Amino acid sequence: MSPKAFIAFAGFVLLMAATWCPLLRPFGVVSWDLYDLNKPYGMVVLLVAIVGIAGIVLKQYKVSRIAAWAGLVLVVLVYIAAQLKVHNTFSFIPFKGMAGFLTKLIKFKWGWYLLFAGAILSVLAVPKPAIQFEQGIK
Question: Cβ-count burial of 17 within 10 angstroms (0-12 exposed, 13-18 middle, 19+ buried)?
């Protein structure tokens, strides 16, 4: 395995492991990982990471490249969704001060760094597939 492929492999493993890391901590009571936020979405991110690992191991770099970009897009989408959800959770409360106070009690945790690091590392390090030329009969 080339060093670049090994780094991409580590990126996919980091992406997979980051799905279990704490992402949100509402009211300082519990920590939520990706599966607590949205279980089907977490399973899709996990499946993309597994497909990327399988592509690296089997030297199918096109598949790994697609999985890396899909993983990055999924992580960006879930971050945007989490931001929107946190800032709109208490919008039903008519008092802006109280809604703002409750919104500040929901903290983003260090798991986001690992999710983004794994996705970016896998995108940057997937080796380009070897070019194969077809020779025609003359």
Answer: middle
Rg (CA), the chain: 19
> How many residues in the chain?
138
Q: In this structure, which amino acid lies at residue 97?
A: G
C-alpha distances (whole Å) from 47 to each of 24, 89, 130 are 22, 29, 25
Predicted confidence (pLDDT) per residue in 64-119, tens digit: 999 999 999 999 999 999 999 888 888 888 888 888 888 888 899 999 999 999 99
In sequence order, the 6+-apart residues with CB closer than 8 A to the CB of 94 are none
β-strand partners of 108: 24
Task: Write out the H or E segment, with its range, that includes residue 124.
Answer: helix 111-125
Using alpha carbons, select from 31, 27, 22 the residue that is nearest to residue 104. Answer: 27
The span from the CA of 77 to the CA of 64, in Å, is 20
